[in-house]
Specification:
- The complex is a heterodimer.
- Chain A has helices at 41-57, 72-81, 100-113, 134-142, 195-203, 242-255, and strands at 2-7, 9-11, 21-22, 29-30, 37-39, 60-67, 85-91, 119-123, 145-150, 152-153, 161-166, 169-175, 179-183, 208-211, 220-226, 235-236.
- By secondary structure, chain A is of the alpha/beta class.
- By secondary structure, chain B is of the alpha/beta class.
- In chain B, strands 1, 2, 3, 4, 5, 6, 10 and 11 form an eight-stranded mixed β-sheet that branches. A five-stranded parallel β-sheet of chain B has the order 14-13-15-16-17. A three-stranded antiparallel β-sheet of chain B has the order 7-8-9.
- In chain B, a hairpin with a 4-residue loop joins strand 8 (126-133) and strand 9.
- In chain B, helix 2 crosses helix 3.
- The chains are: A alpha/beta, B alpha/beta.
Chain lengths: 260, 322
C-alpha cells in the first residue's frame, strides 16, 4: 500500500489571541517572537493514521510538506515518528496569496510524481488558515474518494474502514479504491517519537524542491486580516465561598430573566 | 449569469440547515436576481412546498439520490442543481457534510470557495467573504475572483430576515444520474439515540464543560446543572479528543456553533477555537478556577471557584427560583 501523508508547519495555535497583531501589509499576521512553529495538530493525527495503516497493510508512508524551508522541522518530526521518506516542496508564494486550488494542485502533482497512490492522509484543516478545502480539491484532482473529516479508523478487517461523522451519529465507510482521508483530532493519539529515531531524524538530509512560481489568477484572494476586539470583562460574582457564589449567580441570572 | 443557489440540507421531514439563514445570506448577494433553493439529503420532497413563499424556485433531486449520503453523490446532486440554474453564487451552511461536497463542487466548477463565513457582501460584482482564521483569533476578508462564487456560512451568523413570504416559487424535480460510487461503500449508519432532547445548536440554554472538569466521574455536575436549567449539554474540544464525549457535543470552530440566550461555561478556559462557537450566545457565564482565563473576557458574569462547590449551590438555588 502506498500511503502519502501531507503535513503543514503552522505557528503554535496555543499562542494567546491577545499577543497577535496584523502587519502593515494588512494580510500578514505578526506572530510574537518565541512562539514556535509546530506540526499542524490534525496532521500529527494524520501521520499516526498513516503509520497504523502501514502496520496493518504493509507498504510505505511518504510525507510531503508544502511550505518554507523551515518546514524541514515538521518533516523531521514525521521521520522520527516513523515515515519512510519525506519531501519538502519549498513554496515561493507570498504568505498572503491564498489559493487552495494552487496548494492542492502542487500537492497532487507531488503525490502522483511518486507513482500510483492508495491512500492520501492529511489533517481536516490547518490551524492557521482553517479553510479545510485542500483535501477535497486533492480528491477532485486525483478523482478518488473523499472522507473529510474522518473521526475514527477501524483497526481490523481486510479493508480500510473509517468513520464519517453525521449530524447525529456516523457512517462506517469502506474504501474500495484510492481515497483522501482528512482526519480529525479524535481519530487517534499521535505517538511520541523514540529518542533514537529523533536523533536520526535530526541528521537526515532534506532537500527542498522549489515550487509555486506560478501564482497567476488565484480563485480567492486574501484582502485583509483583522483581530476582533474582545468585549471587556465579566462582572465577577463572589461570595464567602464557592457555594455562596453559586447561589448568588443563580439570583443574578434570575433577575435578568435568564432562569425561568 | 446571475442569481444565488442555496443548498439546504434536509433529513427526512426536517431541515438540517436553516433555509431562512441561507436566504438572509443570499439576499445581500442576489442584487435582485432569483434566489433558488436546492434540497440536499435523504427525503425532503415533503418540505419543498414550505419554501415556495421564500424562494423563486425550489429544486428537488428526483429519485432520492442521497438516501444514503456520500460525498460523491452529493457532488452529483449539487452539480445538477447548478446546471438547472443561472446562478453565479452558490451558498450552503458549513456542516461536516458540506465541508466535503461544497469543496468538491467548487473545484469541479472552477469557482472560488470561502468556507465557514460569518459575513458576506458584494463589491463591484465580486463576493467578499469574512471568516475566522487562526482558530478564530483573527478574521480574514477574502475576495472571490473566480466564478461561480461559493461560500459556506457559519450557522447562526446570518439573522433570518423578517421580510419573508413575498415569493411564489415553483417546486421542480431535477433528474440526477449517479455514476459509479466514487471508491467508497457505506457499510452502516449509526445514529445516536441520545439526541432526543433539545438539539445543541437550537438550545435556548447550554451548559458546557471543558478541560477543567477533573474526570468523567465529575461529568454529572454538568448534566445536573443542565437538567436544572432545562439546558442542552456541550463541551470543549479536549473532552472529545480525550474520548469522554461524542464529537456531536463539541462546541467551537470545528464543532457546533450555538446561539443560546444563556451559555454556562464550566472549566473552559476560552481558547479562540471554543469562543468561535459561542459568538452568537447572548449571555455567557463562566465558572473557572483561573481568574485570568480568557473566557472571563467574553463572559457577562464570572465566578472564580471550584465547580464542585459552586454548581451544587447554584443548582439548589435554581430549583428554588423556578
Amino acid at each position: 500500500m502506498r500511503i502519502v501523508v501531507l503535513i503543514k508547519e503552522v505557528p503554535d495555535p496555543n499562542v494567546e489571541a491577545s499577543e497577535l497583531s496584523v502587519a502593515e501589509s494588512g494580510v500578514d499576521l505578526i506572530i510574537p517572537t518565541g512562539v514556535p512553529s509546530v506540526i499542524n495538530g490534525y496532521d500529527a493525527n494524520a501521520v499516526e493514521a498513516a503509520l497504523q495503516l502501514r502496520e496493518r497493510f504493509g507498504g510505505t508512508v511518504s510525507a510531503i510538506s508544502l511550505g518554507r524551508s523551515s518546514a524541514q522541522s515538521v518533516l523531521r518530526e514525521a521521520l522520527a515518528m516513523g515515515v519512510d521518506d519525506v519531501h519538502l516542496l519549498e513554496d515561493a508564494r507570498p504568505d498572503a496569496v491564498y489559493d487552495p486550488v494552487h496548494t492542492a494542485t502542487t500537492l497532487a502533482d507531488a503525490i502522483t510524481a511518486g507513482g500510483a497512490v492508495d491512500i492520501v492522509v492529511c489533517g481536516r484543516q490547518s490551524s492557521d488558515r482553517d479553510g479545510g478545502q485542500v483535501p477535497a480539491m486533492i480528491a477532485g484532482l486525483l478523482d478518488c474518494a473523499l472522507v473529510s473529516p474522518v473521526t475514527f479508523v477501524e483497526d481490523d478487517g481486510d479493508q480500510v474502514v473509517v468513520r464519517r461523522p453525521l449530524r447525529d451519529g456516523y457512517q462506517r465507510v469502506a474504501l474500495t479504491g484510492p481515497a483522501v482521508l482528512a482526519v480529525s483530532s479524535e481519530t487517534n493519539e499521535p505517538r511520541f517519537p523514540k529518542m533514537m529515531a529523533s536523533a536520526k531524524a535530526r541528521k537526515a538530509f532534506i532537500a527542498g524542491e522549489p515550487v509555486g512560481a506560478d501564482v497567476a489568477s488565484p480563485r480567492v484572494e486574501l484582502r485583509r486580516l483583522r483581530i476582533p476586539e474582545t468585549a471587556g470583562h465579566a462582572e465577577m460574582v463572589g461570595g464567602a465561598n464557592g457555594a455562596a457564589a453559586g447561589s448568588e449567580l443563580a439570583d443574578r441570572l434570575h433577575e435578568m430573566g435568564l432562569i425561568r | 449569469m446571475s442569481g444565488v443557489l442555496v443548498l439546504i440540507e434536509v433529513d427526512g421531514d426536517a431541515f438540517v440547515t436553516s433555509p431562512d439563514e441561507l436566504r438572509a445570506a443570499a439576499m445581500s448577494l442576489a442584487h435582485g436576481g432569483p434566489i433558488v433553493a436546492g434540497l440536499m439529503g435523504p427525503g425532503g420532497a415533503s418540505l419543498a412546498p414550505s419554501l415556495q413563499d421564500r424562494f423563486d424556485r425550489v429544486l428537488v433531486a428526483e429519485g432520492d439520490p442521497l438516501a444514503v449520503y456520500s460525498a460523491g453523490a452529493a457532488l452529483v446532486v449539487g452539480s445538477a442543481y447548478l446546471d438547472a440554474t443561472e446562478a453565479d453564487v452558490c451558498l450552503a451552511t458549513h456542516t461536516a457534510q458540506a465541508r466535503e461536497w461544497l469543496a468538491l463542487l467548487a473545484f469541479q466548477r472552477g469557482g472560488g470557495l470561502v468556507t465557514d463565513c460569518v459575513a458576506l457582501a458584494r463589491e463591484e460584482g465580486a463576493v467578499v467573504a469574512t471568516r475566522p482564521v487562526f482558530g478564530g483569533a483573527v478574521l480574514g476578508e477574502f475576495v472571490v475572483r473566480a466564478a461561480p462564487a461559493f461560500a459556506s456560512i457559519r450557522a447562526k451568523s446570518f439573522a433570518a430576515s423578517d421580510a419573508i413570504g413575498d415569493r411564489a416559487g415553483s417546486v421542480e424535480g431535477v433528474p440526477v444520474a449517479l455514476g459509479d460510487a466514487r471508491g467508497e461503500v457505506v457499510l452502516e449508519e449509526v445514529r445516536n439515540p441520545s439526541t432526543d432532547g433539545v438539539r445543541l445548536q437550537d438550545a435556548r440554554v447550554v451548559v458546557s464543560g471543558g478541560r477543567g472538569i477533573r474526570g468523567l466521574a465529575d461529568w454529572h455536575y454538568i448534566e445536573e446543572t443542565a437538567a436544572a436549567l432545562g439546558a442542552a449539554v456541550g463541551c470543549s474540544r479536549p473532552l472529545v479528543d480525550a474520548g469522554w464525549l461524542d464529537p456531536s457535543f463539541q462546541v467551537g470552530l470545528t464543532g457546533v456553533a450555538v446561539s443560546p440566550d444563556l451559555y454556562v461555561a464550566v472549566g473552559i478556559s476560552g481558547a479562540s477555537q471554543h469562543l468561535s462557537g459561542i459568538s452568537g450566545a447572548k449571555t455567557v457565564v463562566a465558572v473557572n478556577t483561573d481568574p485570568d482565563a480568557p473566557i472571563f473576557k467574553v463572559a457577562r458574569f464570572g465566578v472564580v471557584g471550584d465547580y464542585r462547590q459552586v454548581l451544587p449551590a447554584f443548582i439548589a438555588r435554581v430549583r428554588e427560583l423556578t
